[in-house]
Amino acid sequence: MTRLSAHIGYLYTERPLAERLAAAAADGFTAVEHPEPWPIPAAEMAARLADLGLTFAQVSSGMGGPGEKGLASLPGRETAFRAGFQRAVDYALDVGCPFVHPMAGLGGEDSTYRANIDWAVRACEGTGLRLLIEAITLPGYHMGSLTGACALQDALPAIALLFDSYHARVLGEDPASWVRAHAPRIGHVHIADHPGRHEPGTGSIDFDALLTALCDAGYAAAIGFEYIPSTRAGTGFLPGWSARLSRKVPT
Which helix (H) or strand (E) holds 132? Predict the structure, then answer.
């Protein structure tokens, strides 16, 4: 069954990081994700996840310093990128997380990015982990297009794409149509409405059509909710999503 993952870097931020896990489980999420969960040691994270019946869906290789938004494309930061990536690999293996997301960073160079991604793919060989690549529409982000993400995946089939409904809409794509055309590429999904990047139902995205596209494609990996809550009742949509994804409600 498809897991519903709370991005606890966006959700429950009024609570300490460790307390967000229980809050996510109480609301009906079955997984969590965070780009930098390092304040909770991996052994403690694994125990908390097991106690709450949660899994960990995806982790980044580190955001870098202020204004960097990742390191993979930044010349001169290769050593820091690789150290951060190895830390993420070790953490992911310890908590049973299937994906590591090497954030590209702001600006950067194509040659640096490709060399670091090639290295990261090799670093994952034999571990069971896969890389996630995401097209992010933050101004200046090095991997800013779905076309570019697909081209990188075509060159390196070992990676999977992280498809984000909000970023897709910013790029002028209809999320449901893109999923129908490219579902085999996707390893993880992020959900936020557009405009505003709030919870589903606050903007213009047709999530009924997107859910139908995912169900029709047989998508069974995690769906992460990476949105800025607009209300305290912002998770009221979860039971409907869970029912649809388990095919309890006709599509």
Answer: strand 130-134
pLDDT in tens, 114-142: 999 999 999 999 999 999 999 999 999 99
Active site residue 36: no
Catalytic residue among 33, 68, 134, 173: 134
Helix extents (H) in the chain: 17-27, 42-52, 78-95, 110-124, 146-155, 165-170, 175-182, 207-216, 238-245
Domain of 169, in residue numbers:
4-245
Tokens of 87: 């830390």
100: domain CATH number?
3.20.20.150
Domain count within the chain? 1
Q: Residue 134 catalytic?
A: yes
CA distance 225 to 11: 8
The catalytic residue among 68, 173, 199, 226 is 226
